[in-house]
Amino acid sequence: xxxxxxxxxxxxxxxxxxxxxxxxxxxxxxxxxxxxxxxxxxxxxxxxxxxxxxxxxxxxxxxxxxxxxxxxxxxxxxxxxxxxxxxxxxxxxxxxxxxxxxxxxxxxxxxxxxxxxxxxxxxxxxxxxxxxxxxxxxxxxxxxxxxxxxxxxxxxxxxxxxxxxxxxxxxxxxxxxxxxxxxxxxxxxxxxxxxxxxxxxxxxx
Length: 205
Fold this sequence. Notes:
Blueprint: E1 10-14, H1 16-19, H2 29-39, E2 48-51, H3 57-67, E3 75-79, H4 82-86, H5 91-108, E4 116-119, H6 137-158, E5 161-163, H7 166-169, H8 185-203
Parallel strand pairs: 1-2, 1-3, 3-4, 4-5
Helix pairs in contact: 2-8, 3-5, 5-6
């Protein structure tokens, strides 16, 4: 008898939007995505998640050192940058740090950039939390757009897939957990819909 192949390995890198701050663990979009893939007959393990609420790219880099996940992974997702934007970090510094993080993600994907799925950061300016910020929703949106433009350019240059959830997030301002900021499980369900095709393509390589 032949042995059953091991399920595909999935690594999710990011911050609060990957760990699902305020949502139940099963409602995190990486968990929802893995569950729906399995339900559709795709053998994939629950994701290993390296993500902490509040992390910038530099903090993810240090967190990845500490977690030391052992590749290769069959798919690696990367969603990072909103805290760099929130803290007002300089865009060129973010771009360089993101480029280096992408390189780490590609390395963890067995040096196959086609197995890396980069995801845009959402626009938190539409949430109740943003009402107390010194910036207007339009200013937040412009900063988010700039971060995403930089990340997308780096992802495409590296050969990684790019998935835009930002436009979707701008329709979900009321779909938040109790902190008035982070998405609910329902919102993450829609994110998983958007991200799933790119993850399927990575797993099919």
